[in-house]
Design brief:
heterodimer, A: 515 residues, alpha/beta, seven-stranded mixed sheet, six-stranded mixed sheet, 32% helix, disordered N terminus, B: 333 residues, mainly alpha, globular
Amino acid sequence: MRSNKDRPQGGAVPIALKMTGITKRFGALVASDQVSLELGEGEILSLFGENGAGKTTLMNILFGHYTADAGNIEVFSKPLVGGNTKAALDAGIGMVHQHFALGENLTVLENICLGNEPLWSLRFGGVRLADKARQIAQRCGFEVDLDRPVHTLSIGEKQRVEIVKALYRDAKILVLDEPTAVLTPQEAEGLFEVLRHLSTEGLAVIFISHKLKEIMAVSDRICVLRHGRVVLEVTRAEADPDEIAKAMVGQELKPAVRTRLEPGSTLLSLEAVAKKVDQGALGLQEASFTLREREILGITGVSGNGQQELGDILNGITKPDSGHIDWSALNTAGGDGDQLRRDGVARIPADRHAEGVISGMTVWENVISHSLGKFSKNGLLSFDSAQEHSQQLCTSYDVRYDSLHAEVQQLSGGNIQKLILARELSDQPRVIIAVQPTRGLDVGAVDAVHRRLLEMREKGAGVLLITEDLDELFALSDQIAVIYKGKLSPFYSAERLTLKNIGRMMSGFEIATPA
Amino acid sequence: MLAGGLAAAFALSSVLIVWADAGVWEAYGLIFKGALASRFGITETLARSTPLIMTGLAAAIAFRAKLWNIGGEGQFYMGTLMATWLGTGFLTLPSYLLVPTLILAGALAGGLALLLPTLLKARYKVDEVVTTLLLNFVIILFVSFLLEGPLKDPVSLGWPQASPIVDNGVLPLLIAKTRLHSGFVVALCLAVGLWVLVSRTKLGYEIRAVGHSPQAAGFAGINTRATLIKTALLSGGVAGIAGVCEVTGLKGYLTLDISPGFGYTGIAVAMLGLLHPLGVVVSAIFISTIFVGTDSMSRTLNIPTYLADVIVALAILFVLVSVLLTRYRIVTR
C-alpha cells in the first residue's frame, strides 16, 4: 500500500491520460465546461461530485459515447479520436459500469473472452485463453473457477470478472463508475486492495464516487466536479474532507440531527410474515417485529436478500403467503394503496419511476394520484383545487419543475422523489414505509429527504426504513436489523452497532449480541 | 407537424397516380371535389364517417388504457344483432323509447363481447390482441348462421338478410333525400362525452393511469382490473352503438356485408386521431373524405379505388412518425 505517495504534477511519472479543455453542451446546459485533467501511470484519481456534476458525461466523452464540443484527449501522448468507442478500447481504456454487462448464463471464461476474442476461439483456443485469463485473475487476487457460470457468483465476484475482462483487453486506464454502490463494506475494502495492487503494477485508475469516505481511502488524487467544472483538485495528503464536501455541494452542509426520543405506543406489528421463494428471488422467511411511534427502524442487507419482498408486502404491492400484519393501531385492515393512505400510512416505493410516479402523466396529476377521491366530486375531477393543492405542495417541498402540466418524467430523480414525499407526507401519516428513499439522489436531495423523515419522527410517526446505504442507515435509525437470504435478524440498538458488525451480518455471519 | 405528415402522405401517394397515367393535381382535385364540393358529397362523407367515428372512439378509449381491443368488428356486429333482434318487431314501443332502447341494448351487447377477453386478460394474462381478433370471426360466423336461419327474412327471396327494422326503430334522417342520418349526432355526442370522460373525470384519470403505468397506478390505489373492465364496457359499448346506428340509420336491415371492416378501420381512425376523442372525429371525417372522393375520382380517371387505402395508410404512418419526431431529434454523427 502506498499511502503517502504525493506525486509532483507532471513529474517523473509518465502521463497516461491528458484531457484538456473538454466542453460539452446539451442545449443550454453545459455538462462539461473546460475540464482538464491529467492521470499518471499507476495513479488512482477520484472523480467526486453530485449527480449531474458532469462525472459521467466526462467519462462518456473519454469512452467515445459522446463527442466533445471542444477539447482534446491524449492517451499515452497520442491523440484519441472522439466519439469512437472502439478507438477508446484500442487505446487501452477499460470501463466497469455500475450495472454489469455480463452474460449471466455464460461461464466466467466465456464472459471474459466475449468481445475480446473471435467467437470460434472459445472452442479451439481454450487452453491458451484460460491461461491468460487465469494469470490476470491472479493479478487481481481473484480465485475463481473459470468454468463457473456467472449467475452463481456474488455481486463482488461479478464485479471482479468485469475488471479481469477489461484487463484481458490490455486496459492501461481503468474507469470504475460508482463501483461500491452494490458492495458490502468488506467487499468494497477488498476492491480497494485490488485497485491499490493494480496501481503499483502501473495501471491508471479513475474512480467515480459520491462517497467521501471511499475516495479518501483509495485515491492518490481527488478531483471535485460541480456544474461541469473542476472546482477543487487536491492530492490525498492535502485533502480535507470538510473542504471537499463543501466544494462538491457549493455550500456548507450540516448533517441532519437525530434527537433522542422516547418511542410511544405500537403502530404496526408483524407476526411471522413470510413469502415463498419465487423465480430466483429469495423470498422472506418469517419476519416479526413491532414499529412504535417516534422511532425509525432501519433494515439493510445486500441487494436481493428479501428486503424488496418485505417492502412490497408492507406497501400492499404483494400479499404475504403466511403470517399476519397487525395494523389495528391505525384502525385499518391494510389492503390496497388508497385505503392504506387514508388510514395514515405513507409509502415511499423503491422504484420511484415505475411505482412512485405515473410516467406520461403531468406533475399535478401525479401529486394527487393517491388522493383522487379527495379531488373529485360525482366522478368529476376538480382541476382548480387539485392544481392549486399541487402547486402549494411542490412549493413547500421545493419540487422544481418547468410547468405543472409537464410530464412528470421530465423532472430529475431528486425532484421526483421530493414530489413523492410531498404527496405522501403532507397528510400527517402515522406510519411511513420508506424503501431506498435516497437511492441515486445527490447530497442536497438526500439531505432534504433525511430532514423530512426525521421531522415526521419528531411529530410522532413511526418510520420503517429499508435501505442499502449504510451511512443513511446510521444517520436515521434508532434500531437496526439486517436481512440475509430472506432471514431478518433481531433489531439492535443503532448505538451499539458498528459498520463492521453490519458488514458481517450482511454477509451472513451471526454476531454476538452487542454489549 | 401534422400538416407536414399529411403532405408527405399525399406526395408519396402521387407516385401511384403518376404510375396510373393520370394528373396528380387533377386526381387530388377530383377527390376533394367529389367528397366535399356538393351537397351529395358532403352528406355522403359524413354518413360514411359516422360508423368510423364510433369504432374509432371504441379503439381510442381502449388504447388509452393499453387494452388492445382489435375486436371492434365483432362488437359492431353484436350491436347490429341486438338492433335486429329487438327492432324487427320483438318490441313495440313508440319511437322515442325504442331508439334509445336499441342503442342501449347494442351498447350492452358490444360491451359484453369485449368483457370476456378482458376478464381473461385481467385474471389469467391472456393476450387480448389474440382473443379479441379471433372473437371477430366467431361473432361474424354466428351472425352468418343467424341470417341463414332464425333471423332470415322470409320474404328476402333467399338472400341472407334479416327483416327490416320497424318504422319506430329507424333513426331519422338529418337531411331528407340523403343518407345522412341522426346516428352522426349520436357519434358526435359520444365523442364529446368521451372527451370529457377521459380528460376531466376520475374514471378517465384511472384509465390513463392504467395505460401509462399499471404498476404505478396499482401502487396509487387504483384498482387496475376494475378499470380495465370499465374500459372494456365503454369501448365495446361504443362499437356496439356503431352497429346499431348503421342498421337502424343507414341500411334498415342487417346483412352480412353491412360492415366493410369498420371495426378494423376504427383502429386506423384512432391512431390517426392520436387517441384523442375529438381528434378521432376529425380523422374519421378525413378518412371518409378520402374514401368517398376516391370513389368518384376513380370513375373519372380510371384509377383503382385501392388508392384510398394507400393514402390512408401512408397518412397514418407519416402522422405517427411526425408525432414521434416532435418528441425526439434526429442526430447525425
